[in-house]
């Protein structure tokens, strides 16, 4: 039997407050590589001297300023055509500020992905955009790069707003924005979400703020109070636009746009849609376009959604009874080579019960759901992202946009009810064209949903085999396959398989 990567950490001690979502073993933390939110950083062991990338991302010999860049270790993991099917452009081709290029390269972003190639030059021209691209293919960079390039540092007012549907995504996007802009000198980025101290936000807006990343309810509240001055905003971005233009948020979005100047630029990015995916091209996207087109001026449309599921994610299902689920999960932990895993449940109560059960089995585990205090949610999100724990149990709160590169396994402990949720869940692995594994625990009640989701997504969810080839989801097995598509990698004989 293969050695477990999910480490048993000895007797369980519930040493932390139950509400903070951090349940872990007594002494030995999971040795997980930190998982930055960049699209290109390696997850393997630290790179040895002499292996640092010297010519990546269009860097040309002889440019002195590039010699001082603190580049991350080169990412040698296999990437799929979701991110490698590009036109061959370089970030330097877009005539970006040198200081912005420095931030891009130091993030480990070597070359633009397909959605970035399509978006960046159009956004820089000032044109509105409607973009559809898969989860984990670089949409954040597609709008943050032109947003930062167009900032005028001589002006001390809010120049850009990024709208996102969840608090965790707001924190993630703001961190990426801060990292990319660190060499620009003086870019002020503010994240504001519900569940945090309103007074702190009001005091922050008394100072200079150039970019606001926000959830709709909080920024609208600040606008109506006269605290957030948005009458000079030149760009508004809607990330996860299908959610923001759903019934939950659309009225708030309409109100926010009403406060913006008429000549503002609007960029919409989305991946999935809540109506049956079979009909989404003609149905839900048409509804979004009707809503968006009332505010957009001759938008440029980008559609990179010829297929919906990420190429690098292998999907399996295990047919079990409800009582067998925990035992099955324990078996998966013992046989899979997990770097980090996210385990989804359909209710907050089941999240807490499962997290407790996992710690009783001897594995370190965090949990997160919408009913937790925001302080605890932030702490869990930060600590899991930095690799302090190997397993995270959560609700669908954690499905949209969250980018944790170290996650290579997603487990649907409870199978989702619709294709949209399923697609967002499994998209937490296989980020930026890398490999991942999605395993679904299916009961007799789930079998019809399984077939319906397979049909709607035009994908194949296979029965779980007795052994799973590690090359399907473990980065180290492809560490020498730089710039090789996963389709090519899968043709090679597997080097090793799990034994059962």
From TrEMBL:
GO CC, alphabetical: P-body
Region forming the signal peptide: none
Catalysis: reaction(s): ATP + H2O = ADP + phosphate + H(+)
Locations listed in the record: Cytoplasm, P-body
Bias (Polar residues): 17-40
Motif Q motif, residue range(s) on this chain: 89-117
Superkingdom field: Eukaryota
Annotated Helicase ATP-binding domain residues: 120-291
Protein name, per record: RNA helicase
């Amino acid at each position: 039997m293969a050695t477990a990567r999910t480490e048993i950490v000895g007797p369980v001690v519930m040493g932390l407050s139950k509400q903070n979502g951090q349940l872990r073993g007594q002494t030995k933390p999971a040795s997980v590589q930190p998982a930055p939110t960049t699209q290109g950083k390696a997850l393997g062991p630290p790179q040895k001297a002499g292996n640092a990338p010297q010519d990546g991302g269009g860097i040309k010999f002889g440019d002195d300023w590039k010699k001082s860049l603190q580049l991350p270790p080169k990412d040698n993991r296999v990437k799929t055509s979701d991110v490698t099917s590009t036109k061959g452009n370089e970030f330097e081709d877009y005539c970006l500020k040198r200081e912005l290029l420095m931030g891009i390269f130091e993030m480990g972003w070597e070359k633009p992905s397909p959605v970035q190639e399509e978006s960046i030059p159009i956004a820089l021209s000032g044109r509105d955009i409607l973009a559809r691209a898969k989860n984990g293919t670089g949409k954040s960079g597609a709008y943050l790069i032109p947003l930062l390039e167009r900032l005028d540092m001589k002006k001390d007012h809010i120049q850009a707003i990024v709208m996102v549907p969840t608090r965790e995504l707001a924190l993630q996007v703001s961190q990426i924005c801060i990292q990319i802009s660190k060499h620009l000198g003086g870019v002020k980025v503010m994240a504001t979400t519900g569940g945090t101290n309103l007074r702190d936000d009001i005091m922050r807006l008394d100072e200079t703020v150039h970019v606001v990343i926000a959830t709709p309810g909080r920024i609208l509240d600040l606008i109506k109070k006269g605290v957030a001055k948005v009458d000079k905003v030149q760009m508004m971005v809607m990330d996860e636009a299908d959610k923001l233009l759903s019934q939950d948020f659309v009225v708030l979005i309409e109100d926010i746009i009403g406060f913006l100047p008429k000549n503002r630029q609007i960029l919409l990015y989305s991946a999935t849609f809540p109506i049956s995916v079979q009909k989404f091209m003609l149905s839900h996207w048409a509804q979004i376009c009707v809503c968006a087109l009332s505010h957009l001026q001759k938008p440029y449309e980008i559609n990179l959604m010829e297929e919906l599921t990420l190429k690098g994610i292998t999907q399996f299902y295990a047919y079990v009874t409800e009582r067998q689920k925990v035992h099955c999960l324990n078996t998966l932990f013992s046989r899979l080579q997990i770097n980090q895993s996210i385990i989804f449940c359909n209710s907050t109560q089941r999240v807490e019960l499962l997290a407790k059960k996992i710690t009783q089995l001897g594995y370190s585990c965090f949990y997160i759901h919408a009913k937790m205090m925001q302080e605890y949610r932030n702490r869990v999100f930060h600590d899991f992202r930095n690799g302090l724990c190997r397993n995270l149990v959560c609700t669908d709160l954690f499905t949209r946009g969250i980018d944790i590169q170290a996650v290579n396994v997603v487990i649907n402990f409870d199978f989702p009810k619709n294709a949209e949720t399923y697609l967002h869940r499994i998209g937490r692995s296989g980020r930026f064209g890398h490999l991942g594994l999605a395993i679904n625990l299916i009961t007799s009640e789930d079998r019809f949903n399984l077939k319906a989701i397979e049909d709607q997504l035009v994908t194949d969810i296979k029965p779980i085999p007795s052994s799973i080839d590690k090359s399907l989801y473990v980065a180290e097995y492809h560490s020498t396959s730089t710039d090789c598509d996963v389709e090519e990698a899968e043709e090679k004989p597997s080097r090793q398989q799990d034994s059962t």
